[in-house]
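ARCHIVE CARD
SHELF: 3
SLOT: left
DATA:
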Amino acid sequence: MVNRVIKNLKGEEEKNKGLVWHWQGSGKTLTMIFAANKLFYTEELENPTIFFIIDRIDLEDQLYKEFYSLDIVEPEIIGEVAELKEVL
């Protein structure tokens, strides 16, 4: 995932495909968290802004619990579009 992002930014790869396909219970949330953490600290990206966009409350709870159980950068939780616009 990280290599694909970097290659895309360098113009070496098209961004016309998704990043990962996972089955239910296969670790999608952890994959997203670890990839985001690695991207966050990748020098080529120069302090990126990374968003996790979720569509269900249970995913929000799961993401929150897993993020805070790890010793990595703490996310800022944005609850609505107006707040997102303000942050951006």
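SLOT: right
DATA:
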Amino acid sequence: MDGKIFGLRWITITLIMLGALINYLTRSSLAVAAPTLLGDLHIGDKEYSYVLLAFQLAIILQPIVGWILDRVGLRIGMTVMAVVWSAACMLNGIAHSWQMLASLRGVMGFAEGSANPAGIKAVALWFPARERGFAAGLYNIGASVGSLLAPPLVAAAIIFYDWQFAFVVTGAIGLVWALIWFLFYRAPDQQKLLSEQERDYIAAGQETALEGEKAPSFFATFRGVLGQRNFWGIALPRFLADPTWGTLTFWLPLYLTEARHFDLKQIAIFAWMPFLAADLGCLFGPLVVAFLQKRGLGLINARRGAFTLGAIMMLGVAFAGLVDDPYVAIALICLAGFAHQTLSVTVITMASDLFKRSEVATVAGMAGACGNVGLMIFSTLIGQTVHQIGYAPFFVALSALDIVGAVVLWSVVRTPPNSPSVPAEKSFS
């Protein structure tokens, strides 16, 4: 035995997925604890929207986080980011005012903005083009599973202990992951456990046009990306689509409490279901892309087709706030999770298809920042107006925004001349 691990790329992306899981578990913990926490700290919906705003303002700095990951690498960069977000999450347990909570959530927002840039960079480095969709779908499952686990875990911690304990536990899990990541991860050209066969397989399936040296200065990279049409072609759909994920993550427990009159135990039973549906969407999107490619569509057009299908499915979500039966509403919100991840994973992956590997984390961060601006605006509107107009108009808006996003994706993105057309047979070895 030579000590090499076969299929190491899948082990690596699984570890990335676990990091994303913990990332979204910690960020989702506040939403689940909110009905209890807001009462204890005497925080109203308006102040709660300010806490969410602090997180979103900080996570908009994703381009800086992405550039850091491009410059220092994933091993050091993700270790530092995970330690920061985990420690800040644990400190949520000692918050005594909305201002303190907002400050801590801001720190978390900056560090947790590393999730998508890191995932896309890992996909670009470790996978040939024909496997990137499935790899991105796998790591995106972590976001859904983390959000899925938050309602039962946090609710159990509150029921048996208190909401402070919930933040300490979820933060501590992140510190454990940071240690494992630091000890295990190396880039493909430095990973001694990677077999030569797999190294050659990865290299053979990557586009030579997307090779590049280490990213230049942040402002040079930033200006260069902003001037590219394809960046806006993926960033604007993110701006329009990401409010769905923010609504599920930050407002679903309060919606179930205020509009459907669920108690904490009912929230623990039902609030995770849309995220399970989202997990399935993470895998469904890449399957749609593969299906369309086998029928002759190029890679970029196949990804646009999967996004469009997800946007069409989102039309059903418009009725979530209009139906009388709360269980039908939950079913429609589950559809939102499935449809959103179907379209989201495809447009997120396009950063690795359109941009150099030396800048892909920065691009993913910049596109993610646009998505979070949309999420921030939408979430703030909910906080400011929900008591006047209810939740129903927001579900209608989510459906419409994704249709517009599909139109933008088709009309703005231009297919690179070297983009793969019909995929070769996939290998999962």
